[in-house]
What does this fold into?
Amino acid sequence: MAQKKRIAILGSTGSIGKQALEVIEEHPEEFEAEILTAWCNVPLLAEQARKFKPNAVVIGQDHLYERMLNELSDQPDIKIFAGPDALEQVVTFDTIDLVLTAMVGFAGLRPTLSAIEAGKDIALANKETLVVGGELVIKAALRKRVKLLPVDSEHSAIFQCLSGEFHNPIEKIILTGSGGPFRKLPASEFTNITPEQALKHPTWNMGKKITIDSASLMNKGLEVIEAGWLFKLKPEQIDVILHPQSIIHSLVQFGDGSIKAQMGLPSMKLPILYAFAYPNRLPANSKRFDFSHYASLDFEQPDTDKFPALNLAYGAMERGGNAPCVLNAANEEVVYAFLRRQIGFDRIPAIIEQCLEKIVPIAKVDLESLIETDKESRALAKEIIKNNHK
It folds into this structure.
């Protein structure tokens, strides 16, 4: 019997992490949870640990260590760690075969780099890692000869379309997006959008941050930058099309004009399973797509006047250097400010644009300069938000 693939899940209490554990539970003969981590959700992390019996758990905030210890006092075989440094250290354990990076935002960059340096294959669900530090991550992955297996549904779709085609150059790729809940809403009404409305995604069930990003189309912009690094593409080789049914997850166009698409009902468990089992496809009990239930599939161009975040991302990708880091940091801050009702939905792209204009550009980045850029961009965004809130 083949040995089970031992998986570390960074961000096991989030939407992707929870679905990844469902995949492991559905394929107990193939996978096991080796490491589980969360930033602050002690009760759920403890519940997951009791169920899946990992080698170790990490709670990201140091001050929660004692609470985590108490929660798992009945599980003496599970090692317990706390703090950001522990997140970087546990991914180097010899017992790990694959690391799923499902943490949200910039926080995923350093643990991902640490895992790559330890020679671990990466199932990448944290798009911000490549948005911010794409050059560093790709160089490290090539040097250590580790696989970067995309888990985002769009990038997984591109990856699947390229199976058997890696020797054929890509003419362009087409990333699909649902368009979010405000695709048909007039821009004049954006000032009245509430967090509750923005969190009602029409086709996907995701975490709060990515759901707001989808509503502003910033998520699609971040995916454009991520795709550029993953598939060695220039901005002009990446198109975005809105597809409200979310059946076609993305497409690849080759030099002869032919287009390949990956299709299926919207479910993150499929790309998670594909990354876990790659290069094999394992059977899944998920509901199947039925053409008879869809009289047509719709497509439309994104309205970048109404959703300027998409153009901001393309611009940051063109500029390169630390610009994508500025974009990401400012976006994280304005999204959380919107969720706290400190700014209106319409202010999200405007504040990001201000940060892109004011932060000093750095053409050649390293980890230290990215950390400093992230810090400066957040401080500036918070200052603008504070002044906006007065």
Q: What stands out?
A: Residues 39 and 172 are 37 Å apart (CA to CA). The first strand starts at residue 5 and ends at 10.
